[in-house]
Write a structure and sequence with these properties.
The protein is about 70% helix and about 0% strand. The chain has one domain: Up-down Bundle (Four Helix Bundle (Hemerythrin (Met), subunit A)), CATH 1.20.120. It contains 6 helices and no strands. The N terminus is likely disordered. Helix 4 runs antiparallel to helix 5 and helix 4 runs parallel beside helix 6.
């Protein structure tokens, strides 16, 4: 779906070559946070593809509900990650502007510190949201491993690897910004949550790879998600 909040400079409007060219430039944005979100968006697109290649086939009819849910999740997450890519760039730009604020007087230094602390919160929240979204992606990918077209199983593994890598990359941006946050209690909670989610994403990615590697089909997903 199209993001209605995407502005004229949205990364979603660039060609792949243009986005890579911007990453390679000396400009600070886009940077690693946006790259992580774009990588995750590609992983979500692979989820949608594998589900789409399986829906409507008699062999996978018993998994229809799971596959349709995964297809919808993939589309929504692809869009979500592209939005996060734009938001990450905007958050870093605000943080960089706070760093450039004048500090010649005591008052200016106080205001600069406040601006940096406030900008650091947003610059932390955006990649943290990316980590959380990667968990949603990892769950959806794992749910159709062994329940989808085996001819696209390697694409499912690539999606899982991208989800894991993107989560780790986004987490790195979270951790580097936390020291600048004024509320270190919040920073500690955020750090603990990110570590927890990273472990879950990594575990799901591993399970996806192992299930695909086994080559064995799985029974339908139970109502409790197992």
């Amino acid at each position: 779906m199209e993001d209605r909040d995407a502005g004229p400079n949205s990364f979603r409007d660039l060609t792949l070559a243009q986005f890579v060219g911007r990453l390679a430039s000396a400009e600070p944005v886009p940077g690693g946070g946006s790259a992580a979100a774009v990588a995750a968006s590609i992983g979500a697109a692979l989820l949608t593809m594998v589900a789409s290649l399986s829906i409507g086939r008699e062999k996978f009819a018993e998994h229809a509900a799971t596959l349709e849910a995964a297809q919808g999740a993939g589309r929504a997450l692809s869009d979500r990650f592209l939005t996060l890519a734009d938001q990450d760039a905007a958050a870093f730009a605000t943080y960089a502007a706070a760093l450039r604020r004048p500090r010649a007087t005591d008052g200016e230094r106080v205001e600069r510190s406040r601006a940096i602390a406030a900008a650091a919160v947003t610059a932390t929240e955006i990649p943290a949201a990316c980590v959380e979204a990667c968990l949603d992606l990892a769950y959806a990918l794992e749910s159709i491993a062994g329940r989808s077209n085996p001819n696209a199983s390697s694409d499912l593994v690539v999606g899982a690897l991208l989800a894991d890598a993107a989560a780790q990359a986004a987490a790195a941006n979270v951790m580097i910004n936390l020291p600048a946050v004024a509320d270190q209690g919040w920073a500690g909670e955020t750090s603990a949550r990110v570590v927890e989610v990273l472990a879950a994403v990594g575990d799901l990615a591993r399970q996806t790879r192992e299930t695909v590697g086994s080559g064995h089909p799985r029974p339908p997903l139970r109502p409790d998600g197992r």
